[in-house]
Amino acid sequence: KKEKKEKKEKKEKKEKRDRDDEDGETAKKARVEDSPAAAADGDDDDAPMKFKSADGKTKSGSTPAPPAPGTFPTSSTKVYMGNLAWSIDEAAIGEAFADCGEVVSIKWFEEKETKKFLGAGVVEFDSTEAAARAVAAAGRQVHNRETKIRPWEERGNTGEEKRAAKAAKFEVKPMGPKPPGCYTLFMGNLNFAIDDDAIYKFFKEGADAEMVAVRWLTNKESGEFRGVGFADFADDENLDRAATLNGKPCMGRPIRMDWQAPK
């Protein structure tokens, strides 16, 4: 009898969890349908969103509405910094931008396999004002290099952002002038499940271009793949054919490419 009672209690708990999961999915769908991207003209975009809790009740929140398809919200305290010297460290960044505000953390970008630093990172400041001052200081010399700075886009950090990113219409940007001696393509907007074999097959089948090597960009601290990489080619012929695939679907996502100047 005791075993039967325990089995019955487990079954009831499982059924309750299933019902709660269904309620949660319903609430998520309702939020997407009520977002500015799906709402009819005349809706109040400034009105706070309403969330459905596990008990079925609704409550108002101050969380902003999800981004419209094709757009991503920028972080209020984080900025992207590029063209950094290989000798850079957190102390140097903190000192160089001390007049902007306090640097809270830095996530460096590095290759997925070799862990080689790629001269860029995401710098978090202690306030919105500090981050804005850092963006305004773009071009500042740090370790004898002109720093590229822009607001950091928070991509896919919430369910709403992931759905917006998936629904976004990707605008293909033309590639810039090809630099002399270039045999490498920058690749962005990559599927996070991509690997060496998949990208080799993409170039070979899509443009009859043979790639000789690939490097993936990851977060320097966490090792998380950033959806960006670099593909090397042996000659101009293969490189130019591969470049014709800019904007073409690669594992369900339009690939963004540009020339990578040799160092």
What does this structure look like?
With 263 residues, the chain is an alpha+beta fold. Helices cover 29% and strands 28% of the residues. The protein contains 6 helices and 14 strands. It has helices spanning 2-33, 90-96, 128-136, 159-167, 196-207, 236-243; strands at residues 50-52, 58-60, 74-82, 103-111, 117-125, 141-142, 145-146, 148-153, 184-188, 211-219, 225-233, 249-250, 253-254, 256-259. The strands form 4 sheets. The protein has an 8-stranded antiparallel sheet. Strands 1-2 form a two-stranded antiparallel sheet. The longest helix is centred in the first third of the chain and has 32 residues, at 2-33. The chain is flat and about 75 Å long. The relative contact order is 0.13.
Q: List how many beta strands DSSP finds.
A: 14
Radius of gyration computed on alpha carbons: 23 Å
Largest sheet: 8 strands, antiparallel
Which bin fits the share of residues in helices? 25-40%
What class would the helix/strand composition place it in? alpha+beta
Shape descriptor: flat
- Please give the order of strands in the largest beta sheet: 8-3-5-4-10-11-9-14
Q: What is the H/E string? A: HEEEHEEHEEEHEHEEHEEE
Q: Can you count the helices?
A: 6
The percentage of residues in β strands lies in 25-35%
Average pLDDT across residues?
77
Distance between the termini: 75 Å
List low-pLDDT spans.
27-64, 66-70
Topology overview:
Blueprint: H1 2-33, E1 50-52, E2 58-60, E3 74-82, H2 90-96, E4 103-111, E5 117-125, H3 128-136, E6 141-142, E7 145-146, E8 148-153, H4 159-167, E9 184-188, H5 196-207, E10 211-219, E11 225-233, H6 236-243, E12 249-250, E13 253-254, E14 256-259
